[in-house]
Inverse folding.
């Protein structure tokens, strides 16, 4: 089927999503949405194998509850792209706001530049097939990976400034946060601990770095070493020692 | 020096003359109170007893006796045995005290200080036996006006776009209790009962197990801060979606399902790792304001193509009316208010007993605020938290609720005796446990019948109460506070409730 083009100029998000849904149900595998300006919920709850190219700046909750599609954004994103996403991909050629990949359970989010606060909050994995991946090209703000219960967050700090935020992984009880460079203990949240980043770890994240670099035409070589810090949970039961029975 | 042990909470005694040593008590007690000796005698360890009554209800000879607090303390009105024992417990542990079921503090119960009206002479009462009683309830946004045109052929044309509503044949629904907190058999019993009585029940934040799929048209699927079990299929399956912001038993805090309760099946249904704690954070991390709430409401509606009503549940707290007015403007279709007596499997005791306000006051103030602002039609009001009988339902509706959720009452109809040890995971009634042998004690066919009986009998009583008051439609009871009087309620409370005192 021919690629479908949708002009989003002046269009509210509901009719825009209706057009996208209709195209997908008619079998479209390539959709381009032009002149996007702040429309929220694009591809919200959308299922299927389709690539949506979003030209402009989408509003909040891009790809919320999404299950399968790929969204490629030529521009920045507002807050929470990939919110509670189940499967699929979001590729952002720019930066994104707060709570990127909030509660994401599967699929991948690639952000070329920076993300805001609370990135990857409460990301979780389960079973063999659900393992969410968030890769950030440059930097993230504080409270990264809070309450995380699975998956991997990778921050590459491509401009050379290492992560300067705090409260990393408060309440984390699963998954890994991998940051380029060194992290100080005082930057950690309660329940998180720093552990050595090994060759095996590199082997594990290698495909995600390569995929990221391919999307943004960056040479991956520079990132394929062990100069990372890995943050994991001190316990999968962070609240086990907090309560006593009546 | 050790603190020593505290006195027994309960003492179990067996009338040895009555006992036929059938060992049913030994088999039934999951807490290990009874042990069979080699000589066939039954040894009792009363300290392990939780007063769940399983042994008593299964004893064929009524040979078991239970007494509460068999050991006296020096009596003191302030330093109750409980106050002293909590101090001792925390001195030993240095931890937060965890408690089950609803608020156990002796606050006055407003429902019991409200009386209903009946007709005498001037306005005849109605006999539900011979007159139709309208209990059908619609939950969701109602239009502020209808644009109706009569066509040339006489047909009526409706030009107003109506919002999706839930249709209930009784204003009684079953509240949110998740798979994980309760067993699958317990949830299945409730779901079957909801289907039998043409009403709805909530999934809680535990996902939707595939065994519940046949009853999905009667399920309200919950989206809470952990987003457990939430994906597009889950949202599409539910008849309605409910965003849980807060809960009456523990306002302001999140939930932790302990790792030992997260078995493979619970893990798959919740879509979380097996064996690790299931942590629902206190806030939704995409909701930091009333605008953000509107964003999530619309996000859920957009995901389900605006076909499903979205409810928002909050705990009844001081400014509940203002919060509800904000929710009414967020595109939500109903606001659920959970009073401070709401039940739970586990809550920090200090929250359960001290945070929040009574549901009666919350219903009245929310209904009044929405009316004052002219937006009552924008949302339905669902009340929950401590509703024990049909009179509580009638009073809730007269105070301004559209419908109620029941939780504890439905569990009692399946065997629960409100022992409050749900967080132990050993519920001998097969309700608040995932242990297979205990879960299998609960037969969904039988228990769904019990739950349905309860809902049907309350519905019958409700229509009798309405008939006695000369009301033949639930719509005419809703917010009809003139049919209530307050007995021994203070002026301030009467003012909040907008109810006159008895005799006035």
């Amino acid at each position: 089927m021919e690629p479908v083009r949708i002009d989003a100029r002046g269009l509210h998000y509901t009719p825009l999503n209706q057009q996208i849904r209709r195209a997908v149900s008619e079998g479209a595998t390539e959709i381009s949405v032009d002149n996007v300006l702040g429309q929220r919920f694009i591809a919200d709850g959308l299922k299927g194998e389709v690539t949506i190219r979003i030209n402009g700046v989408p509003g909040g909750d891009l790809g919320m509850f999404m299950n399968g599609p790929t969204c490629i954004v030529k521009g920045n994103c507002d807050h929470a792209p990939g919110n509670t996403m189940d499967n699929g991909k979001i590729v952002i050629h720019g930066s994104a706001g707060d709570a990127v990949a909030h509660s994401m359970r599967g699929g991948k989010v690639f952000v070329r530049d920076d993300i805001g606060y609370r990135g990857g909050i409460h990301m979780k994995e389960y079973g063999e097939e659900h393992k969410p991946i968030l890769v950030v090209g440059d930097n993230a703000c504080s409270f990264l990976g809070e309450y995380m219960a699975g998956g991997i967050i990778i921050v590459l700090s491509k401009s050379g400034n290492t992560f300067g935020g705090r409260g990393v992984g408060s309440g984390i009880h699963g998954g890994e946060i991998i940051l380029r460079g060194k992290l100080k203990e005082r930057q950690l949240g309660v329940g998180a601990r720093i552990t050595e980043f090994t060759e095996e770890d590199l082997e594990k994240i290698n495909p995600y770095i390569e995929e990221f670099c391919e999307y943004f035409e960056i040479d991956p070589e520079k990132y394929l070493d062990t100069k990372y810090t890995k943050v994991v949970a001190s316990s999968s039961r962070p609240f086990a020692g907090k309560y006593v029975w009546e | 020096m050790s603190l020593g042990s505290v006195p027994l909470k309960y003492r179990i005694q067996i009338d040895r003359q009555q006992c036929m040593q059938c060992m049913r008590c030994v088999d039934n007690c999951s807490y290990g109170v009874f042990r069979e000796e080699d000589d066939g005698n039954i040894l009792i360890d009363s300290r392990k007893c939780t007063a769940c009554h399983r042994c008593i209800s299964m004893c064929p000879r009524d040979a078991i006796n239970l007494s509460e607090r068999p050991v006296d303390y020096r009596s003191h009105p302030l330093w109750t045995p409980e106050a002293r024992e909590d101090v001792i417990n925390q001195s030993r542990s240095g931890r937060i005290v965890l408690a089950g079921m609803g608020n156990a503090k002796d606050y006055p119960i407003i429902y019991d200080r409200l009386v209903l009206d009946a007709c005498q002479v001037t306005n005849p009462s109605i006999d539900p036996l011979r007159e139709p009683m309208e209990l059908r309830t619609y939950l969701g946004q109602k239009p502020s006006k209808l644009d109706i045109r009569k066509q040339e052929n006489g047909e009526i044309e409706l030009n107003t776009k109506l919002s999706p509503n839930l249709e209930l044949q009784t204003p009684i629904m079953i509240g949110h209790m998740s798979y994980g907190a309760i067993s699958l058999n317990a949830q299945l019993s409730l779901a079957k009962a909801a289907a039998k009585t043409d009403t709805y029940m909530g999934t809680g934040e535990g996902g939707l197990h595939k065994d519940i799929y046949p009853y999905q048209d009667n399920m309200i699927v919950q989206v809470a801060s952990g987003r457990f079990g939430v994906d597009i299929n889950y949202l599409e399956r539910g008849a309605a979606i409910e965003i849980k912001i807060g809960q009456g038993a523990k306002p302001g805090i999140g939930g932790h399902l302990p790792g030992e309760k997260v078995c493979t099946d619970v893990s798959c249904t919740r879509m979380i790792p097996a064996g690790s704690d299931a942590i629902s954070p206190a806030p939704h991390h995409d909701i930091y304001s009333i605008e953000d709430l509107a964003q999530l409401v619309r996000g859920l509606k957009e995901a389900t193509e605006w076909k499903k009503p979205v409810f928002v549940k909050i705990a009844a707290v001081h400014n509940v009316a203002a919060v509800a007015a904000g929710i009414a403007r967020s595109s939500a279709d109903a606001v659920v208010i959970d009073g401070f007596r709401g039940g739970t499997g586990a809550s920090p005791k200090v929250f359960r007993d001290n945070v929040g306000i009574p549901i009666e006051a919350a219903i009245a103030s929310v209904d009044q605020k929405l009316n004052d602002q002219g937006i009552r039609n924008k949302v339905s009001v669902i009340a929950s938290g401590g509703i024990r009988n049909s009179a509580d339902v009638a009073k809730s509706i007269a105070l301004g609720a559209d419908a109620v959720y029941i939780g504890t009452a439905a569990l009692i109809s399946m065997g629960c005796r409100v022992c409050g040890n749900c967080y132990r995971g050993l519920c001998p009634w097969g309700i608040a446990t995932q242990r297979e042998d205990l879960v299998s004690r609960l037969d969904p066919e039988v228990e769904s019948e019990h739950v349905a009986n309860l809902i049907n009998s309350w519905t019958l009583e409700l229509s009798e109460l309405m008939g006695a008051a000369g009301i033949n439609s639930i719509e005419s009871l809703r917010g009809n506070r003139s049919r209530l009087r307050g007995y021994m309620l203070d002026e301030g409370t009467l003012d909040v409730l907008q109810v006159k005192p008895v005799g006035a």
